[in-house]
Amino acid sequence: MKFWLTFFLTFFAAVSWGIVISDVTFTGLETVEASELLFLVRDYVNVDLTDQGVQELAKKIFDTGYFSSLEPELISTDKGYVLNLKVQENPVVTDWKIEVTGPELIKKDNLQSAVVLEKNRALSIEKVKESLQAIKKKFDDAGYFLVEVNGDFKEGVYIFQVIEYALWEIYFDGETDGLDFSQIRKQMKIDTLKDFYTTPSILRIFTKDIKRCYPTIQSISSVMSVLSKYVYFGEETSINFEKMDIPGVDEKAAALKINVSLRKIIDDGKVYDNVEIAGNKLISSSELQSIIKLQPGQYVSNVEILKAMQNLIDYYDEKGYPMVFVTAQEKENTLLLNVHEKYVSSVEFDGLSLTKKYVIDDLITFEKGEALKEKDFYDTISALNRTQFFESISAYPVGTSDSTEVKVMINIGEKQRKFDFNGGIAWTPPSEGKQWYEGFYGEVTLATINPFGYGQSFSISGTLGLSSRSFSFEYSVRKPFELPATLGALFKYENTTDDSSVTNILQLGGNFTTLRREGHAFGAGVTYEQRYSSIGTENTLILSGNYSYDTRDNSIFAMNGKYLYTGVSKAGLFGILDDRSYWKLRVDARMFMPLYEDSLSVAFRAFATTLLGESYKISGATEETILFYGIDSVRGTSSVKDKAGWVGSAELRYDLKSQTIPIYLLAFVDVGGTGESLLQPDINVTAGPEMDIAIPMLGVIGFGVAYNFDGNWTFDNFKPFFRFGTAF
């Protein structure tokens, strides 16, 4: 380099014994300020320097990256030595820009904030490096590792080139003979560009997000987690990414190659006198012997032993015991298969930054010292999901394959948004002679759930129909003062119009519900109700009790689990505040059964409610009725108020696995009706398709068409409907 050659020839003799430099000057500066450079070398001025010190001084200037050459010259003056640095600046950067090849996994605006390269100044190689590293770090921090960041300088413009690579597919290479890896591949729930482009275009619009095809550290970790469940892969198994050019595909892509090196139990085939199983406590040895399919005296290969080991692991998995591992060893002429069952050593939380642990600790079903069970993962995650306290929840075991103890980590994402807007709106074609808008009935709720981490929920609700309007405020808190219950309070005001008579209804109440144990919970409540209208004022005390059982995987849209609710309310009990006296009964039973993995399920519901034993002290008082609308009515029929009603529903639910927002396709059959009693309903039977979209903060929006089987096969029997709220 010109700088170093000139430097050594000029200074070797002069600074062998040390000199003092009184000033540093520059020749050749055009866009770089001398003051900026002098600040960097201020510690080298007016001090005794050797040749090494002068080298360090000059190197600090050169390392700014602004210069293509630097020639030092030592000048003797009356005031001492002056070091003059003759520099040649790099070309001037008139502008810079970022070019992204890919879907902009990180927005350009965000990437631009990482660039420190200055415009209208000499190109600084150091600032280019710093900018490239900062851009790459943004991708690293977001988990994207399959990204190239380069640069190019053309005609005064520096171009930062970002190339994002999608995952095309996963392939197995190496020692694959005798083994079927297709099942392993199916378990790798990772999105690929190949799957994206083989999905029909119309479905792709609704269900696929191409950004999901760009792998992250987390998604590749899930792939490695799947591999760790199989004994086939030896220590020398490796993975690497190979760039690919896919005809007809614009995106840059790479394939994940898994180079299989089989675990070696034996080098060649062998005959064993005995095959034994050890370490098993949860399943008997005789039961496991029938699984491995290895017999004494049988000639077995290394692959056959691996298959036997994997059969044991798979069998435990089928029984609901995950993460079990099997090792093999030869003991004289016996093949010993050691089963490493897993037991819970501890449970820890990660991400629980707001919610207090005592609020949710009863929902954790893992017990220290107990066997690790798949059911506990489902029960714990489902229970935490049903609280609606959290944005995301996951649970996973941490431990080594040959250990019997594992730690369970529960990863929680606290909600960032503090308010939810949801409710229910139903519309069905109104009866003849009414306007189209008379088919609407709606309820809207603004709620904040667990805003302070103590399990409180606040909600304000409003309902609007043609004959009634209401406003309510509800409050509940889970485990207040660590009590084993949820306590709640209610205030509600309702205004109804019936036959030109206006009634105002005021309700104040409180309730409690026991904590759910293995899905079971009990509740009770008391409500004071005052009604005032032109005919008088009524005061009523209403007592209620209920039992519920809930194992649904999701309270908004379930694909698995069961739900049962039975409730009874009694107005005017014991003759206290009994201007109104009646019994109200409600039963709601639901079942959700997966048919294919977690994508296809069938759902059933039976719902019934009725009023019994009514009496009113004030003559002419408006009688009690029950409103049937939304999920409590037959789809495609109008909302109605009546004394009793029931609905039976069956649905086939398909989760499109949308990568944008959850979308479900449904085929349904509803049968039910309302009337003066459950034994005398006006029966309606409808069936049809429906599409439900689960939107954060809004709940489920459903669109569908119901055909009413009334015996008249006409086009008019097709009734479009819309609903907004929760699915059953």
From TrEMBL:
Transmembrane segments: none annotated. One of its GO terms (cellular component) is outer membrane. It is found in: Membrane. It holds the Pfam family POTRA. Its main location: membrane. InterPro entries: Bac_surfAg_D15, BamA/TamA_POTRA, D15-like. Residues 450-725 form the Bacterial surface antigen (D15) domain. It comes from the Bacteria. Residues 97-154, 273-342, 343-414 form the POTRA domain. Keywords: Cell outer membrane, Membrane, Signal, Transmembrane. This is Surface antigen (D15).
